[in-house]
Amino acid sequence: MSDDSIQIDHIRAQWAKARPDLDTGPMGLIGRLGRITRVLSREMEATFARHGLNQASFDLLATLRRAAPPHALTAGQLMDNMMITSGTVTNRINRLEVKGLVERRADKEDARRAIVGLTETGFALIDRVIEDHVATQHRLTALLTDAEFAALDAGLAGYLAKLDGREAG
């Protein structure tokens, strides 16, 4: 058991003494999920940093790369795909445009809109980064057996669907 997991159990034991009337079972689960999130995020950020990116810039480049050729979307489509605000998407586009990774082109159907697409440099970069990103994910999940991986994936997918349904309702 990790030091953090032991610490979470220690905190729960302290609460059991201080407030035996409280069921702190969820505290363990949520504490562990939070710690896992921080560890995974740190590993992903390190992967992106090796390529001069961060999570935000990776997300935008990856969204464009997943789009059908010519790998270009409007700002509105980026907002919808990435679930971010117009100000946030504009800021990200501006930063990546300065780096020469994306470019704005006039929309042939509506001159008031711009289409954001990957440059050749951006396309080549995101292809390298996604390979590194997937390798990092494999390295991190290789710590699980196949059965643990499947059970965790299914359990978390179900939990997320319930949380999302609660938010929508």
UniProtKB/TrEMBL annotation:
Keywords of this entry: DNA-binding, Transcription, Transcription regulation
Official protein name in the record: MarR family transcriptional regulator
Family annotation (PROSITE patterns): HTH_MARR_2 (PS50995)
Entries under Gene3D superfamilies matching the protein: Winged helix-like DNA-binding domain superfamily/Winged helix DNA-binding domain (1.10.10.10)
Keyword flag Transcription: yes
Coiled-coil region list: none
Positions of the HTH marR-type domain: 26-161
Organism: Celeribacter baekdonensis
